[in-house]
Amino acid sequence: MRTAASSLSRWETPGDGGAVPGAAAIERLLDLYEAPEELDRLLALRKQAREPDRWQPYDLERSYRSYANIEAQATSIEIYQSQLIPGLAQTEEYARAVIEATMRPDSDLDREVQVRLTRQEILSREPPPEVWMIIAEAALRQRIGSGKLMADQLDHLTELAALPNVTLQALPYNAGAHAALTLASFSVLRVDHHGLMTVYLQGPSSHMFMSSEENIEHYSGVFNRLRASALDEGKPTLKLLRSISSEHSQDKD
To answer: Which keywords does this Swiss-Prot/TrEMBL entry list (predicted)?
Structure first.
């Protein structure tokens, strides 16, 4: 396959100076690397890359912007969080407290909070994604800000759990050893109309996507085992949420 060096350079360049390879070029490259099974996924990514980027005004780092774009189109999202309330379920006050405590010195607090709130709009879009969240009890008890702030946050989780497209399970302390003991958090996202499925891992200063069949199978399996370890959605989870919310409400410090 012969391709001009200038074209290769533009394909490799992010942002306004770059270019998206054509569908024919992608197909030829996959033939060259003997990976035709990747065609549908890469064509879906190509289509996504050519769509208007709603996050451009926020100047997000590239990997976070990629995640936000995939999340915005997702048809299903599975989220496990051991330390924090998931971003899609955070109140504005909780989000502000978390971001303020962890952001880089040169970050814009108001902008970062607005990005998080904008991401949450997918929960009420038509059609909405199916969102399944498993949150460890430690995250529910970890005090972020005041007791009232935490009580309001847990009450918000209760409200979200009533949505027809949201399933919420709490993973209690007494669940014992479980499939995600060594994981802080992960998400499995599916975009059916693009034929895309990916795993997302977020660290303190990095974002990682994994789209291999092996990784997707592994993390989907971990999530399914977590579902079995967690409290049932509905009354058992809601009972724990209300109990911990009441404890936070009584904390006047």
So the answer is: DNA-binding
Mean pLDDT over 189-206 rounds to: 82
Higher pLDDT pick, 247 / 206: 247
Strands 76-81 and 130-136: parallel
Domain boundaries, the chain: 75-250
From residue 169, how far is each of 118, 172, 187 by CA, in Å? 24, 9, 15
- The label of the residue with tokens 């399996």 reads 221
For CA atoms 102, 14, 73, 79, give the dihedral sign. negative
Residue 32 and residue 42: Cα distance in Å, rounded? 15
Nearest-10 Cα torsion for 223, 229, 176, 84: 50
Residue 104 has a pLDDT of 86
Burial of 36 (0-12, 13-18, 19+ CB in 10 A): exposed
> Peptide bond preceding 127: is omega within 30 degrees of 0, i.e. cis?
yes
Asked if the model's pLDDT at residue 74 lies above 70, the reply is yes
